[in-house]
Amino acid sequence: MEIKFSEEELNKVEELKSKYPNSKAALMGVLWLAQKKFGWISQEVIEYVADLLQLPPSHVDGVVSFYTMYFKKPMGKYHIQVCTNVSCLLRDGEEIYHYISKKLGISNGEVTSDGLFSLEEVECMGACGGAPMIAVNENYFENIDIEFVDKLIDNLRKQDGLSS
Amino acid sequence: MERYPKLLLPEIANLNEIDVYLSNGGFEAYKKAIKMSPEEVINEVKKSGLRGRGGACFPTGLKWSFMPKSKDIPKYLCVNGDESEPGSFKDRQIFEFNPFQLIEGILISGYAMGIKTAYIYIRGEYHKWINLMQKALDTAYERGYVGPKMKTTFGNDYWLDIFIHKGAGAYICGEETALMNSIEGDRGYPRFKPPFPAQRGLWGYPTTINNVETITAVVPIIKMGGDEYAKIGAPKHPGTLLFGVSGHINRPGVYELPTGTPLKEIIYEHCGGVWKNKSLKAVIPGGSSMPPLTAEEAEIALMDEESLQQFGTHIGTGGIIVMDEDTDIVKVTYRIAHFYHHESCGQCTPCREGCGWMEKMLKRIYEGNATAKDLDLLYSVASNIEGNTICALGDAAAWPVKGFLTKFRSEFEKRVKASREFVPPNVVHGKRRSFSDFVEYKS
Question: What's the complex ipTM?
Fold first, then answer.
């Protein structure tokens, strides 16, 4: 894929820049935009974003590597994030993590060979009242159990089989 | 059960729609505020005794009064919705159910400090709540409650812009100076204080950072008057608080209750007691960085800063984590230490190295490979992190470890051996000259 924003996305970049007194502050927003479009933040994306905002690529790289939510490698179509922090731990979040890991045959930060799923053990996602919880891409699933996770993954697989 | 005033999350359906908000007295507090002078608004907040809801409990009115009065320089307000403290999940309720009260709170705070630009910092994981908040903000702009159109809506010269800044997964960005760096598009490293944000904050200009809940609480304060608000809850820490209860509990969730409510009442009456009819072992009263309470302490503790200090802990973010009798305390402590090691930004050596060291030791204890000596070493490492770092993350990492270790020492002692097993030297060590060789060599 060519690393380039569309006209519409470039307008979005301008809109982001207008929120702040300088363009550096728009960096995090632009990186989100880039991740949405390109799937992950590669070296080319870093250089493209740096060029776009007139920043040194090293600075962009520094920001990308600091924040855990920017992907430094291609992730699955469905990125499954399992919380195992205290509140979830107390309600068997760890078991759910290990179950998913076994079911998909991947461990923390890995992607299934078909590129459909990736798994991440995340820190608190601010859903402690709904523990245990997982998030798939941008959606939260709270008060879950192994049975639910099982169905969810199967459904996602099926859904993808139909759509592709 | 007694009914308490709901000032932050009123039980009104569809309050997240602007018309419903307006018909329930929406933006009346702001209209009242602009009839007062900015100093009077700050004084009203001072009188209310409102203290920051982000964990540090700093008096809000006092914080606001640090802002320079000058009108010629840019000044900023940051609303902290990073909500990254494990155990707290209250701000997202405000984003979802009462976004316009937050916006009104920002207008009042902005007016009081003469601020032209406010940023709401929301953690990156909250995609859904960022969208909800953005939707509310767009509506407010459209209807002329935020932005330049405010001037005609309210018939006053004052107006401000509100923007949402999306984080990207870093616990440390909930620290006020790290949050500013994050908004500026840098790595989220905390800054040295002084200079304090009110002197040099965002882009070097005076800045105030307040928690989402704090800003939302400003609206009822102006509505009912500071004196009236100060009568709610504990005298030294007045108001209502959003308690997020999680863990081994029958009805987890966010409960708005006055400060000073007995913890026992929260657990057994509001939340329906410990799950599976089990008894209590420990309670973390204010998010994972606060030292725990034992079951006996939880029976008598009142949920306000002053009362909790008697038990060596703090109110924090009001995130209550309940643990039943079967909880493995060592595992919980190990998990907390793992979290802080993961989230340490790496600027200060005591925190960067110490958090990792604590995690390793706790892993050893958890796996049964530690000796009694390790417990004292663990305590000493925690003590040497505390107070020796730029920001409070070091303290936040040390407090729970020290707290659990002190209050549940027997749990840890059960897991350690009296002495370490003899480990045969490896090949490299075997080839080294022994100490006795060295002595002979010298003589």
Answer: 0.95
